[in-house]
Write a structure and sequence with these properties.
mainly alpha; 8 helices; 55% helix; globular
Length: 199
């Protein structure tokens, strides 16, 4: 499966208004631009330090490092932070943040510890249970079951996959594609004797 097809399929279930009407190539280009402007550590505007740690751990379980980079190597948490701070509606942001609190509560109820204190196997077990619930929602014919695209875990999974496959690390080391060098700026202002900066 190509990156374009994967992101088109996953975006269909993301439930994010900021992506309405965008095609697969536009979603890819948007993701690549977000990576270029993602915040650094300690500059979070939407996630607390604890929420940041939960997102990092969950994203790494969704796409773990192996012989290819994992979600952490690809800067997925900074990507998600940027989306939450600048592109989500307040309702979408709150839905995801409430889901992170739910994930912690579920971890304490089923495993006796907060999500980030669990080992990898237990984290995967907790996330798999949530994923199974979302899958059951997708298969439910009942309108009372709720829209699975609105579930916080659907949003987190989409952002993890989107952030991963639009990162330079994943393009280079997972997909074997190299980002295009440089950039083209049309109608750039010209000043005599001033050399343009290289991108």
């Amino acid at each position: 499966m190509h990156r374009r097809d994967l992101l088109r399929m996953v975006a269909a279930g993301a439930g994010l208004r900021c992506l309405d009407g965008l095609g697969a190539d536009e979603i890819i280009a948007f993701g690549e631009r977000l990576h270029a402007s993602a915040v650094g550590p300690g500059e979070n505007r939407a996630l607390s330090a604890r929420q940041n740690a939960i997102v990092t751990a969950a994203a790494e379980r969704i796409i773990p490092a192996s012989d290819t980079p994992g979600a952490t190597d690809a800067g997925v948490t900074a990507f998600i932070e940027r989306m939450l701070a600048d592109w989500y509606t307040p309702a979408e942001r709150q839905r995801l943040l409430a889901g992170l609190a739910e994930l912690d509560a579920r971890s304490r109820a089923t495993r006796g510890r907060d999500f980030i204190a669990l080992g990898e196997v237990d984290q995967v077990t907790v996330l798999t249970a949530v994923d199974d619930e979302v899958t059951a929602l997708r298969r439910s014919p009942s309108p009372d079951a709720g829209n699975p695209d609105d579930h916080w875990f659907s949003m987190l999974k989409f952002l993890t996959v989107w952030g991963y496959f639009t990162s330079e690390a994943a393009m280079r080391d997972t997909l074997g594609q190299w980002p295009m060098a440089g950039r083209y700026v049309s109608c750039a202002p010209y000043e005599s004797g001033v050399r343009p900066e290289r991108p």
